[in-house]
């Protein structure tokens, strides 16, 4: 199964999770995160959003994040599906899912991947608000979330 997919079409979470664990009796836990489009951001109503990416570079960047997670935790499978193009409130944007023998590793790896995805993957997000279109920058809280994953200097 391909670990990274960038696509315009929606995804079926149950189907994707079933494929991720299919035939692997070692799997003791699957943890997933689904991100969706909110109708409100930074105090403004959002009527739609558009996500852009740099084909090739985006997939490589996400694969590198997955590779880092695999170095930290014993994962059996990992999957990131990220949508691009026009999206509406309540649409699914991203699926991050991992499998492992135990829940602890799966929870940590899933959180690590989404934290890095939010700040390190080359996506550009434009929101449509009543005041007009605006590009969205990374949040301070997203950068703060990365700090917990920093490895101590050796």
DSSP, total strands: 10
Mean pLDDT: 91
Question: Tell me about the biggest sheet?
Answer: 4 strands, mixed
- Across the major sheet, the strand order is 1-6-8-2
Overall, the morphology is: globular
Order of helices and strands: EHEEEEHEEEHEEH
Number of helices: 4
Sheet-strand content, in percent, reads 35-45%
Oligomer: single chain
Uncertain regions: pLDDT < 50 for 5+ in a row? Answer: none
Secondary structure category: alpha+beta
Helix share, percent: 25-40%
For the termini, the CA-CA separation is 36 Å
Alpha carbon gyration radius? 16 Å
What is the topological layout?
Elements: E1 4-7, H1 13-21, E2 29-36, E3 40-41, E4 44-45, E5 48-53, H2 57-72, E6 75-83, E7 85-87, E8 92-100, H3 103-120, E9 123-129, E10 132-136, H4 140-147
Parallel strand pairs: 1-6
Antiparallel strand pairs: 2-8, 3-4, 5-7, 5-9, 6-8, 9-10
Helix pairs in contact: 2-3, 3-4
